Target: WxL domain-containing protein
Amino acid sequence: MTIKKTLIVGLIGISSVTLFAPSAFAVTSLGDSKATVKFKAGTGVVNPVDPEKPTKPIDPLDPSNPTDPGTGNTGSLTLDYVSSVNFGEQEVSSTEQSYSSTSRKPFIQISDRRGTGAGWKVTATATAFQNEDGAASLSGATLSFKNGETASASTTATTPTAAQTVELPTDGTSIVSVVSAKASEGMGTWINRWFGATPNDTASLNDNVKLTIPAGSATLGDHEATITWTLSDAPGV
Model:
C-alpha cells in the first residue's frame, strides 16, 4: 500500500505542473543596438617574444651579446629583433670548411600593425668580414640559414612564407630573400627562426646556420661581418 500511495502523489504533482504551466509569450517588440570599435595603426615598440612560444615575451639572450634588447624600431611595420650568430673558435685549415653555429635559437621578429594586409618582405645582405685591424678578411666566406620556419601567437592570421635555404655571400652587395608575406598574410607579430635540432641542449651546435670558409682564406684572430636585415613595405611574391 505504501508504494501505491507514493506513485499516486507523484502523478498528481506532474498533472498539476502541466495544468498550470504558462503558455509561450508572443514577441511584441524588438530593438537593435550596435557594438562598435575603430582601429588605427600601431606605432610603439614591439618587444621581442619567445621564439619557441611566441605568446611569451622575453629578453633575448645571445652568446655574443647577452644584453641585446631588440631593435627598438617604432612604427606600424617593424623589424623588432634580429639575432647575431656566433661560430666559436676554430683552427685554421688548408681546405674549405663549414662551421655550425653556437647560436642555438637565432631568429628575427616582424610586426605588421598597419591593419591593411598589404604584405611585406624581408631581405638580407652581409658585409665582408673584417679582422681586428679593420681590414677585409675571410674572402669568399658564405653564411647559410636553412630550414627556416615561421611562428606566431596568432591562431587566425595567414602564415608568411620562409625561405628554406638562405645562402648569403659576405660581399656587401648580394640581396637575398628571407621571408615574405603576400597580401592578407603576415599580419600581427611573426617569428622567423632557424633552430638547431636540439636547441635546449647548451652543448649542441646549430647545423641549420653555418659559415663556410674557402681554402686558404682563414687568418688568425677575431673576424666580424655585419648582416643587414631589411623589412620592406611590399608584398611578397
